[in-house]
Amino acid sequence: MSVRVVARIRPLLEKELDRDAIVRADRVDDGKPLTIVKIPSPKNEAEEFSFTFNSVYEQTTSQEELFSAEVAPHVKALFQGLDVTIFAYGVTGTGKTHTMRGGMKLAERGVIPRLLSNVFRRGKKIAKDSDGETTVQVALSYYEIYNDKVFDLLESPDKRTPSGLPLREKDGKTIVVGLSERSCEDLKDFEKLYIESNNNRMTAATKLNAHSSRSHAILRVKVTQTTGDMVKESTASAIDLAGSEDNRRTENGKERLIESAAINKSLFVLSQCIDAIARGDKRIPYRESKMTRILSLGQNNGITIMILNLAPMRSYHLDTLSSLNVSSRAKRIEVREIENEVVFKQAPRATAGLGGPNVRRQPLRPLANAHNVHTGALAAKAADAKVADKPIKAFSVYTDKASKPTASSRATVSAANTAQLRRSDSHKRQSDPSESLSTRPTKLARPTHTTLARPAAPAPQQLSISAAEIEALVEKKVAEILASRAAEAAPVPVPAPAAAKEDSAPLQNQISDEVQRRLEALERRIENDGQDGRSEGLRILLQARQAKERGDDEGALRYYELALPFFPGQVKLMGKIERLKAKLGKTDRKKERFLQVRDGREDKENVHESVYGAFDGAGIDINDPRWFPVKLLQKKAPSSKTRKVHVDMEEGPTTPRTKKLLNVVNSRDLSLIRSLHGFGAKKAQDLVDHLNLGGDEESGRVASLAQLKMLPGVGSRTVERAYEGLV
Ligand SMILES: Nc1ncnc2c1ncn2[C@@H]1O[C@H](COP(=O)(O)OP(=O)(O)OP(=O)(O)O)[C@@H](O)[C@H]1O
Q1: Is 335 annotated as a binding residue?
Q2: What CA–CA distance (Å, rounded) separates 512 from 128?
Q3: How confident is the model at residue 498 (pLDDT cuts 50, 70, 90)?
Q4: Where does the chain hold its CATH 3.40.850.10 domain(s)?
């Protein structure tokens, strides 16, 4: 499975003015292809956000150029049996339909007709080259998902039922019951069908765009190649997604809000799936929305191309940032190292403010969560319900490649912005070593946030930061640094506890030089810790936690097991492993029994005995340090005290200590027996039960230590420990 995420900036439309264009394509270096989208910060024009993609297509890119670069190369793969899925994602009016469907003129035709044209051409060539031995059939289905309901676009709208077409599982696949499929002979055939069915597509007016598409339109092109008995089937899916705009800026009515909630939910799941595919996760949450479920997204070997459509206009500013953010998450894995960079410019640009005569599209209310994926309240709710801990945007922050920010330029960054940046920096990844050094997130960048956050003049509270507060700050920062390290190694950022972030926000703005110094010292300490493997272990643990949080139990188990050698004998960690194993049906009962001992669910004191008694020869490698701390494995030579006990038990006279021990045992008093070393609750209870079976206190009396050690469940080691414990 592979994902490619590209951005396409549409040209200015007739009434749009050049001076209102704020989105531009850029490259990491001269001579390199365009891979960066740059957009100013809505809060501070002096700052510019950079989002990196696999490829960026600027305003002048023609339909032909886009198709040749992004889709045509995969037609071959389609005929080799791979599934190809192409999405157009973006805000209403950014050119999704133009990209996928295009105009009527030949040059304006979009991805879909070009794809079909290529498919028919290649199909014919294959048939010809095989002298007719191989036949190629092309069949289409075309449907839309509107308000989470599936409607067949090849059928007339009056045949629709309000609930849409049902889904069923068949042979492990999700099928849309009753969805029609039409075979297509050639391009003309296709165009006729496609034009007809597009008329059926649900469109509804929103304030943003009178022809706004409020449904996802999915065209599936099934290619069947038959050679004798051999049948090869593959599917190309082209999806024109519904607009991803923020409801709060569209003044939608109730009906539109319901539509938007459904759209946002499915787009959210889509972005999660794309992310998961790109990370190479085993678990893709494709079942969580109808669209991804029907597409079985990420379930087969295949190629997914996501085209992010962008309007260059200022009036789309916040929505553009939102969708850049979503798509960059998807892209992050492909271009791992330099996504979502925030570039601090040297000096504020003398650009116009956010207003302007051409700002027609949205009132630019400053939204605190400008970087959220879907900022609509309903979407947030849906997202909360589905994924309680949606990963935070992974903004890497680095200094402008031309020069590092000077003190003065740093000072231009507002505290609010830096708080936002700080939140994200904990998820920063390492730079791609292949990138020039100047473009890499510099180490300087991370601590700089705190410097940036420092008010120009020290606030009075700054002086009142107590040692405890500094400690708390340092703690938090360490957690952030560790999380950041983990994020560098892991594909997905760890969501740091929201509460902690909220708490720290006001304080972090007051970070003093002292804190800064201590943070640096701590960083160094963590670096040094790394040498003894502990921080590596912590990093793996964090990865495990991330996997667990995204519901990937298999992955979590793998990481926990990997972390175990760094923390041999760690009871909690082993407990986690066993619980996960139990959940995944992988429990080894014998190991579980051992863990009961280790967890204190069984007698901890008796661990030696349990190790050698219960597990000896039971298939557990007791020399495996993952399971047993070395200390416990080394059978110690009996101490002089132990030897004394042996003598005492076997042949020596009854000492006061022996008497005392036997008295406790013979008292049959549970709490007294439990107070003995080596006697946990269960062992004590077993002993009392056994003694009670033996008759009254006189007849059932234990007369010697040798007799005591013969009792079931007691053993010589227990007796030794109990004896030693009685000082
Ligand atoms: N690359 C382009 N070249 C020329 N015109 C374009 C381009 N992209 C978009 N347009 C024009 O911009 C307008 C909006 O595009 P389009 O309808 O494709 O947006 P959309 O994202 O599909 O919107 P919706 O979500 O409402 O369907 C249309 O008039 C379209 O012709």
Answers
A1: no
A2: 76
A3: very low
A4: 62-308
95 carries a ligand binding annotation: yes
Which ligand 1 atom minimizes the distance to the CA of 63? 1
Within 10 Å of residue 134's Cβ, how many Cβ atoms? 17
Instruction: Please check if 159 is assigned to a binding site.
Output: no
DSSP string covering 292-355, please? HHHHTTTSSSEEEEEEEEE--BGGGHHHHHHHHHHHHHHHHTTT-TTTT-EEEPSS------S-
pTM strictly above 0.80: no
Q: What is the pLDDT of residues 656-689, one digit of tens each?
A: 888 889 999 988 888 889 889 888 888 888 888 8
Mutating to test ligand 1, I would choose from 6, 9, 10 the residue with most ligand atoms within 8 A of its C-beta, which is 10
Question: Tell me, what's the ipTM?
Answer: 0.98
Question: Where does ligand 1 bind, in terms of residues with CB under 6 Å?
Answer: 10-11, 13, 90, 92-98, 209, 211-213, 243, 309
- List the one residue out of 410, 401, 447 whose CA is nearest residue 428: 447
Give mean pLDDT, residues 391-397: 26
Beta strands 230-240 and 34-40 are unpaired
Task: Determine the Cα–Cα distance for residues 560 and 188; give it in Å rounded to an integer.
Answer: 57
Mutate to test the pocket of ligand 1, among 23, 66, 98 (most ligand atoms within 8 A of CB): 98
Q: Which residue has the higher pLDDT, 357 or 586?
A: 586
Return d(Cα 346, Cα 568) in angstroms, integer.
50
Q: How far is the CA of 214 from the centre of ligand 1 (A)?
A: 14
What mean pLDDT is predicted for residues 277-291? 84
Residues of the chain with CATH 1.10.150.280: 640-725
On the question of pLDDT at 176 being above 80, the answer is yes
Measuring from atom 4 of ligand 1, which residue has the nearest CA?
Answer: 11
Give the gyration radius of the chain's Cα atoms.
33
CA of 208 to the centre of ligand 1 (A): 12
pLDDT digits (tens, 9 = 90+) for 97-143: 999 999 888 899 999 999 999 999 999 999 999 998 999 999 999 99
Q: Is the pLDDT of residue 497 over 50?
A: no
Minimal-distance CA residue to ligand 1 atom 14: 93
Q: What is the whole-number distance in angstroms between the Cα of residue 95 and the centre of ligand 1? A: 3
Query: Using CA positions, which residue lies closest to atom 11 of ligand 1?
Result: 95
pLDDT tens string 714-727: 888 888 888 888 87
CATH fold of 62-308: Kinesin (3.40.850)
What's the gap in Å between 197 CA and the centre of ligand 1? 19
Ligand 1 atom showing the smallest separation from residue 209 Cα: 26
For residue 606, the CA-to-ligand 1 centroid distance in Å is 74
Per CATH, the number for 640-725 is 1.10.150.280
Query: Between 603 and 67, whose confidence is greater?
Result: 67
d(CA 20, ligand 1 centre) in Å? 18
Instruction: Say how far apart CA 153 and CA 168 lie, in whole Å.
Output: 19
Q: How does pLDDT run across 211-234, given as a tens digit for each residue?
A: 446 788 999 999 999 999 899 999
